Amino acid sequence: MEHARHVLRVAFVLIVVLAAVFLTRGLLVPKSYGLYGPFRYDNVQEQMNVRAPAYAGAVACGECHATEFGKREKGSHKTVNCEVCHAPLSFHVKGDGTVVPAPVDRSFTLCARCHRKILGRPAKFPQVVLEQHVPGPVEGKVCLECHDPHSPKL
Amino acid sequence: MPEISGFSFPNDVHVTWSLMIVMYPYITGFVAGSFIVTSLYHLFGRQEFKPVARLAMATSFAFLLIASLPLQLHLGQPQRGPSVMITPHFTSAMAGFGILYSFYLVILVLEVWFVWRQEIIERAKRSRGVVRAFYAVLALGTYDQSPEAVEIDHRAIQILAGIGLPAACMLHGYVGFIFGAIKANPWWSTPLMPVIFLLSAAVSGIALLVILYQVFARLGRRPVVPSAMSALASALWFFLILTITLELLELIVMAYERSESWLIISELITTRLEFSYVTVQMIVGGLIPFILLAVVVLMNRYLHERVRNTLSTVAALLCLLQVFSMRWNIVIGGQLLSKSLRGLRSPYEPEVFGREGVLMAIALMIAPFVILWAFDRVLGIEEGEGEPEDASPSEGGGAASHAPNA
Amino acid sequence: MDAKRDTSAASSPGSPCSSGTAGDGATRREFLGGALRLTGGAVVVLMGATVAEANEKGGEAKGEAYNWEEHLYAYLIDTSKCIGCGSCVRACKNENQVPDGFYRTWIERYVVGMEETHVDSPDGGLNGFPPIQSGFVATKSFFVPKMCNHCRKTPSTQVCPVGASYRTKDGAILVDGDRCIGCGYCVQACPFGSRFLHPATHTASKCTWCYHRITKGMKPACVAVCPTGTRQFGDLKQENDPVRLAIEHDRVGILQGHLLTEPQCYYLNLDKEVR
Question: Do A120 and C110 make contact, defined as CB atoms within 8 angstroms?
Fold first, then answer.
């Protein structure tokens, strides 16, 4: 054994290093790690509160814009959330209550995004080929000239 | 913006695993491959590998020190890299990295210490002052050079090599596992992946040693032992055959089964990877070295030493290229195809500068050789060489009379 | 030499004074044994302390307003209703500040003929779809909204090396942005292409089913804005939940079922061409 002294020294150094590693590791593991699984449980709460919701739904819009809300309820756009065409609530009403104007795109593009006839849309869904939809030249025509966006069916 | 042919999922167009992730298995391949060579002597007692054994161990060590760098450089949040050691999630093969790497590092450091212990003691005796203190610390304060102690060293080396060989294989095998176990990617998902990675690691390690052995011998003005060169060439040929066979078989099985992914994979190979897979990996890197090494091995008796060494070196260089292109084709190739199985993106061009760029990759390849040079200065790779006062590495190789023990 | 050995022995912690004599062996053994016991004990104590503190925390969390044990969410998509307007993609982008060029949800258009199929997803469907010519006779065409499937047996959390990606008790797969190391393994492992590395934070990011909304009783933003009722969100633990009823009684499909990831996004009217 006398000649194995150097082996014992190596073993000793190794054990000290391993112990140091384990101790350090124990100190660095986050507190809520492993509670419900291999993740940091505190993060669940963080994700629940990551930000205030941006979209609030049509009913929230109706609180201030009752007329448009009423028109929409009776029309064929009643399943279309106001925030689809207009901005989400959080863009319009800030957290502290200040109201920011939220202009809406009044051009053909907005309506065309849903109602232009393209491959893929279900046949029963109302869609148009603009050239066949209106008599006369198409240039500069805007859907809003004839359709009320809140109750569009003529 | 990459160009897409066909249809790729919108998030699928980015190559997340970059050149650094190609470098990582390449470097750990050298670690494992060199260790296999040194184990052939230290563990299996194959005497013809003795001239290369110490160099191989030092090479494995030098590459191991660099091995974690490509990963650190690649991480989106590199400062959180140590989290893999603090909260490892063991269902992930990557979490295994911290443990496997540390374990193998410990084994290799211990083995290097035992193999070079006599040198450390010699140098401690020969030097003065700070240098002496340095060597004294390295020797852990024991200067036992008796035959009994040396015998214990041998036993320790054998045991460590016995543990170290599976550890080295696991260290590289798990990299293959990381790819092979991803069922989402049909180019990667095969049980053969860890095996192929390991065998090509052996190819790269042996090929590197074919070249390094000759370079070191030339630098130290030592003769290149013919039996060592033949042994290396035979081993290289053997592992090359296994690697190419498995790589080909994997492809053939996929083509024969013609399952869902085959259409896009065949398009991947014939369009995006045509040069790097067919030309470089299989023909230039596979077929040609196979022929060259066949000549070296089968006609061993008839070849002049110079011819044999030249053929072996050329074959080794091509094998190094083959293994790199294999890593590239798997890592990058797998990301060129979308999980929609309908689309391929344009080939990946790594950046030149930057954290994950070409220059960084070159630096990572040069670094182990710098470490090897420093190793030679501090410990002396070959026995009984390298007085500390000399300016040039491994001087004094003239009277190299090897001691009867390892 | 002897002096050197003695100093090093004396400087190591807790070592009894040793004088380099033959009695060394016994003292060394004792010392090593003691050191091992001490270290082991320290490790155990520290680990125990961490666990005890963690248990305390767990008790606190349970008593909060939202209890994740009471919910198990699922998502239902009826591809026969989707008109490809892209409102969902825009809403998700606004709600979750999704960076340009990356998608937490997207829509794919399939134009199918007898021999060929053409699939496209221009900017994920963010601005709707343009008209196209298929170049072959198309017998059917439809839209398929996609997002993270929040699989029950997902490979994406299996491969996370640090436990940053996980599944909540109420069925959502989330990513802890403060622990993620940005290795990209989960991005590679997801069979559906739902994940990406955020270009600013360099961590993994994906659809969270708007966890910050659903835990307050709201629907995810994409469901809230869908004008045709294509997207529905439900709770499998509520009686008479329409999504639960559809999954229980109607013919539903899932994506890449052969991979056994058990996705929780169920599709009605899913075509064989959809992967």
Answer: yes
User: Closest chain B residue to C7 measured between Cα atoms?
Assistant: B141
**CA atoms of A77 and A154, how far apart (whole Å):** 12
Nearest CA distance, B184 vs chain C (angstrom) = 4
What residues have CB less than 8 Å from A38, skipping those under 6 apart?
B87, B89, B91, C163, C166
Contacts across the A-B interface (CB distance below 8 Å): 37
Asked if C99 and C137 sit in the same domain, the reply is yes
Asked whether the beta carbons of residue C188 and residue B11 sit closer than 8 angstroms, the reply is: no
Q: Has residue C183 been placed in a domain? A: yes
What gap in Å lies between CA A3 and CA B148, rounded to an integer? Answer: 6
Closest residue in A to C212 (Cα) is A48
B149 touches chain A (CB under 8 A): yes
User: Dihedral sign, CA of A48, A49, A54, A57?
Assistant: positive
The answer to whether the beta carbons of residues C166 and C173 sit under 8 Å apart is yes
Tell me the residue range of the domain where C225 lies: 71-268
Residue ranges per structural domain of chain B: 4-378
Can you give the CATH number for the domain in which C85 is found? 3.30.70.20
| Among A55, A72, A92, A107, the residue to mutate for chain C (most C Cβ within 10 A) | A55
Q: What are the strands, taking DSSP E only, across B277-341?
A: none
- Contact flag A54-C28 (C-beta cutoff 8 Å): no
pLDDT in 10s for each residue of chain B, 406 residues: 678 889 999 999 999 999 999 999 999 999 999 999 999 998 898 999 999 999 999 999 999 999 999 999 999 999 999 899 899 999 999 998 888 999 999 999 999 999 999 888 888 888 888 888 888 888 888 888 888 888 999 999 999 999 999 998 888 889 999 999 999 999 999 999 999 999 999 999 999 999 999 999 888 888 899 999 999 999 999 999 999 999 999 999 999 999 889 999 999 999 999 999 999 999 999 999 999 999 999 998 888 889 999 999 999 999 999 999 999 999 999 999 999 999 999 889 999 998 899 999 999 999 999 999 999 988 888 775 433 333 333 333 333 344 444 4
Top CATH class of B4-378 equals mainly alpha
Predicted TM-score of the model (pTM): 0.86
Say which residues have a Cβ less than 8 Å from residue B137's Cβ, sequence separation at least 6: none
> Residue ranges per domain, chain A?
2-48, 58-145
Instruction: Report the Cα–Cα distance between both ends of chain B, in Å, rounded.
Output: 58
In a domain, C112, yes or no: yes
